[in-house]
Specification:
- The chain is α+β, with helices and mostly antiparallel strands and 92 residues long.
- It is built from 4 helices and 3 strands.
- It has a 3-stranded antiparallel beta sheet.
- The radius of gyration is 14 Å and the shape is globular.
Length: 92
Amino acid sequence: MATGGGFEDLTSGEVERQADMERHWDERLDEGQRATAERLQATGLTGTLQIGDGFKFRWLRGDDVLAESDFHPRFPEAFEEAVARLPASEQA
């Protein structure tokens, strides 16, 4: 029976590691990316990381998704794509 969750084949340690990375995504950024994240968070945006078939990153204001990346094999690329997809008014 096929299921769509993605966590079925992971050990409990792998699930915990993924959950930890989703919570602490900002610690995986380089200095320039971290400065960008801090600037955007200071304007009220929330960044979220989803791990599945790669990494997907979203910027939200409240419950509204303002920008979302595609899935990427590496987290920094997902972060950069989501930043680039933000409306210009949110990047200022």
